[in-house]
Amino acid sequence: MALIAVFIAVLLPAAASAEDLLRVYRDARGYDAMYAAARHALEAGREKLPQGRALLLPTLSLSANTLYTDLDSNSRNPASAPSFERDFRSHGYLLSFAQPLYREQNSLQYSQAEFQVQQAEASFGLVGQDLMVRVAQSYFDALAAQDSLAFIRAQKAAIAEQLAQARRNFEVGAATITDTHEAKARFDLSAAQELAAQSDLVNKRRALKQITGKEYTSLKPLRPQVQLAPPNPARMEDWVDLAEKRSYPVLIQEAQIEIASLEVKRNRAANYPTLDLVVTHGQTSLTGSAFSSVAAFQTSSTVGLQFAMPIYAGGALRSREREAAANHEKLKQDLENARRSSEFSSGQSYLAVINGIAQIAALEQALISSQSALDSTRVGYKVGVRINIDVLNAQQQLFSTERDLALARYNTINSHLRLKAAAGALREDDLEEVNRVLAQ
Prior knowledge:
Blueprint: H1 2-16, H2 21-31, H3 33-46, H4 48-54, E1 59-73, E2 84-102, H5 104-171, H6 177-212, H7 236-246, H8 248-269, E3 274-286, E4 296-308, H9 316-383, H10 388-422, H11 428-435
Antiparallel strand pairs: 1-2, 2-3, 3-4
């Protein structure tokens, strides 16, 4: 334990500049490509509403033209219709205004746009929650790899001390060569484990860099003896109920159901008549025409109603209606599947949190017992009632328990975040709450 204390003291300058979970998450939010893509998808999805509204509003268009005509007429009967050559120019414009009075399809498409915006917002919320979970998982994976390396190095130092003592005892005849061989074998094994732990730490830090775009020399660990709170509300049924109603996959599917239902009505409305108010105003200036060489200036204005009624389109309209109805039924099953999946994931995460808290309590007690066992074994070794292998086993048990305890805490925190994500309740405030239990 003294060696661990020295190791921590060496790391204190790095810990002073260590990054916390909230800072890492904010780096990820500005770098992660999946989150950036989802943000742009949200911006695109929100444009569906003004596009749908535009179908109900009037349209105004302006067209203009200028033409040059060179006409050469050769008559077959010059006596009655003489031949002539004539060139003339024309200039004009036309201003058109149209206001839909009755277009059921447009009204339904505007209603669809409202649910398409809801779907885009729910999809963005889902990706946002996924980012928080991925950042927390990578953050604590890196901490776990860092802890594992520290425990292995501390164990290696303790074994080296035990190896040196076994050699001294063998030299004075107080122990056999077996003690030295056992300690040397454990020392070589810990050296190999140290190399594997170093490689794992590099990989975990690279995985975190993939999300944030930054390399962190040090991350803030959990406070010693931190106590993790159980889920609130405490009943699993409450979390399951929240997941069935508020989880983002369910909200996305509910929005798609509404869009599909309106799509059925919209395809049915393709058989309905349409009525528009149409107003036009235009002017044309002519220097001549095919019938006269006299210049003219014309102005025309029209106001009227335009009625259209589809009668037969080769069966395409009815086919699209049946297609939309089938898609609607398919999405109903997708919604049911999303609810079942949310129910399962929320229940699974809830049990992981509850079991994790119980496991932490058990490992905390096991850590005390392992420390006591190691102390007793060392005393027994000194007085000759224990052998070297007993001390090595007790040391390994202690370090394994410390590593398992740290890993259980990390897994429980991640499970709690996944539980809130499954219920659609994970927010940045939850990361701030986790951040408060990190060492300051």
